[in-house]
Design goal:
about 650 residues; alpha+beta; Immunoglobulin-like; six-stranded antiparallel β-sheet; about 35% strand
């Protein structure tokens, strides 16, 4: 039976000759990759660990498993190269059995420099270097489930629901001529069915994985037996569900289920991508709090653990590879490799419904024919590896509806920023209306939309580019209404759930950051716009007073905005009841501003309070003093 030992602790780290002791997960440019400076370290760094003697029985095999090393890795054991890997976001394993001795010095060379062969190289986010996810030592019998097959789990579980009946086929990848038996257990751990490898196993009246309402999970256990002896065993969660995506929207288990949610980047302040399970769990808690039912995991493969959380809590997932912004002349093999790894490694997750081929790949007008050809190839590859799911892309806003590339995948979404990078909210309606007129059967969604906001910037007359919380609210109020009435959008994803590092940016008084998040980078502050979507999506009762951080105000009239999912709310000013209003996501009150205000909003047992001060002159601390330079990342290639 396999033995798995985590070896995260006790590494020596060498960056340009300076050595230090570190534990994994670790990113070496977590700080300088978030400050917008010229010291953004993309280099080769060395990680070293003494493994000591590894006790194995005759015939056993020893593997190293790396869950995330950015961007390229060379694994050296006892001064011999044991393996390499290109791609910073997928899992890979290296068989080190033939290189073992009694001491076993492990060296991992991690290369985060510019390369024209490994994606991504140009994008609006920081490329953090390091061994930033778990590292495990795995010992298996000579007869074992395959650890070399594209970093996958060793079994592919395919559940099918038809006419209320369920079947599940478990395909095992083995390094053996032994027998593989399958057990299916329900969520309570009760054995409900058995079968053999690649056999259709019947599950009568399957309990469906039904999104947020009921994310029910089964477990498949595969056991490898050779000459009557169990040599290896694997378990994987899975879910029975069926879905369809049409020009009328997304359907889950035969019912309309509009996908309304957010995009997510995985980084955190100072540590970059080297985040813990607790940080993953906090992200999921915040996403559940807003009431989203879908998440686009951009722009790369995320940690296994987060896909598990999506399965557990019922978030429908768009999973994608970092084929983004600029097509690399030498990158086709790597794009194919990363797509294969994504699908093989994450195939068993019921939360995933689409594989994303690319993001804004037409931003740079190079290699048009090659891009189109690679899209067609990747689309075919996805269907070959996984006939059960659909493909999609996130199309660049400036690409015309006629571009052939955007019609390759099964469905598509567009990254549109009308009202932020370009003026006029109403252009969203005109653009989708025009597209719908041209292609009435085209399945279309909104993969990115958003506006920058910093919690210290405020304005009584918010306008495009001022980075104020008030403008972000104005933007999302409009888009939330537009999305609500545009029923045919199969999915919409706010860009972004959280602020994130983008070292090429310099804007808003805080360089190196993208501030489009509904929540701050450190996850401590939910911006006011967060509550627009919570009011639209969440069933958890709440009331929220917007503009609390805009405490000092001028003028004789005070405009109070409240976001809530309650039908009626009551306003109290300086302890006295003023009025009751109906509320549909937002309610607005106009209050005489003769002095300081203590505001309370009530709805039944719910309440929220805020204090505002009347001042004679506008507070200069609320104003953006540095003009935005949003696209400087496009000029950085190293």
């Amino acid at each position: 039976m396999r033995k798995i030992t985590n070896i995260n602790n006790g590494w020596e780290f060498d960056l340009n000759g300076v050595k230090s002791a570190v534990d994994i997960p670790h990113s070496w440019n977590g700080i300088d990759g978030q400050d917008g400076g010229d010291d953004y370290v993309r280099t080769v760094a060395i990680y070293t660990k003494e493994l000591g003697k590894i006790e194995i029985a005759p015939g056993e095999q020893v593997y190293l498993e790396f869950k995330g090393v950015n961007s390229s890795a060379k694994v050296i054991l006892n001064e011999q190269e044991a393996g390499t890997h290109d791609g910073g976001y997928s899992k890979f394993r290296v068989n080190i059995t033939d290189y073992l001795n009694d001491t076993n010095k492990l060296v991992v060379e991690v290369d985060n420099r510019y390369s024209d062969k490994v994606y991504p190289q140009k994008a609006d986010f920081t490329f953090y270097g390091g061994i930033y996810r778990d590292v495990n030592l795995i010992i298996v019998s000579a007869d074992h489930f395959d650890l070399d097959y594209h970093g996958g789990p060793g079994i592919a579980v395919t559940p099918i629901v038809k006419d209320g009946k369920g079947t599940v086929k478990v395909e095992a990848y083995t390094k053996s001529e032994g027998d593989v038996s399958i057990e299916i257990k329900d969520a309570d751990g009760e054995l409900i069915a058995t079968g053999k490898n690649n056999e259709e196993i019947v599950v009568e009246a399957p309990h469906l994985w039904n999104g947020l309402e009921d994310p029910y999970l089964y477990t498949a256990t595969a056991t490898l037996t050779v000459n009557g002896e169990v040599t290896d065993q694997l378990c994987s969660n899975f879910g029975f569900r069926f879905f369809d995506i049409t020009n009328k929207g997304f359907f889950l288990n035969g019912k309309s289920y509009p996908l309304r949610g957010v995009c997510r980047h995985q980084d955190r302040p100072k540590v970059g991508n080297a985040i813990t399970k607790e940080m993953h769990e906090e992200d999921m808690e915040i996403i559940r709090d807003i009431g989203a039912n879908t998440i686009r995991l951009a722009h790369y493969q995320h940690d296994d653990y987060f896909y598990d959380l999506c399965d557990k809590y019922g978030l429908v997932v768009w999973a994608e590879i970092p084929y983004i912004s600029m097509h690399l002349e030498g990158g086709d093999d790597n794009a194919r490799s990363q797509m294969t790894e994504l699908i093989v490694q994450q195939y068993n997750h019921p939360s995933i419904v689409v594989w994303g081929i690319s993001n804004e790949i037409t931003m740079f007008k190079n290699n048009k024919k090659e891009k189109l050809a690679l899209h067609k190839e990747l689309n075919e590859l996805c269907h070959k590896l996984d006939p059960t799911r659909k493909t999609t892309i996130a199309a660049f806003a400036m690409t015309t509806p006629f571009n052939k590339l955007n019609h390759v995948s099964d469905v598509a979404s567009w990254n549109l920023y009308f009202g932020w990078y370009v003026p006029f909210f109403f252009m969203n309606e005109l653009w989708f209306g025009f597209f719908r007129l041209l292609y009435p059967k085209y399945v279309i969604g909104l993969s990115e939309y958003g506006a920058e906001a910093m919690t210290n910037f405020h304005s009584p007359k918010p306008k495009i580019g001022d980075n104020s919380e008030e403008y972000q609210c104005k933007y999302h109020e409009y888009l939330a209404k537009f999305i609500k009435k545009t029923k045919y959008l199969w999915a919409t994803h706010v860009w972004n759930m959280f602020d994130f590092g983008s070292d090429g940016r310099n804007q808003g008084g805080e360089p190196g950051m993208n501030h489009k998040g509904l929540v701050t980078f450190d996850r401590k502050i939910k911006k006011d716009s967060f509550y627009i979507y919570k009011a639209s999506w969440s069933k958890e009762p709440f009331v929220h007073i917007a503009g609390k951080r805009y405490a000092n105000r001028t003028g004789n009239k005070f405009i109070l905005n409240v976001y809530s999912n309650q039908k009626e709310i009551e306003l109290y000013v300086n302890g006295a009841f003023v009025e009751k209003k109906s509320c549909d996501v937002k309610a607005q009150f106009k209050i005489p501003f003769k002095g300081d205000l203590d505001i309370e909003i009530k709805s039944g047992e719910l309440s929220d309070t805020a204090h505002f001060c009347k001042v004679a002159v506008e507070d200069e601390n609320y104003k953006l003093k540095v003009k935005s330079n949003s696209h400087s990342w496009e000029k950085k290639s190293d």
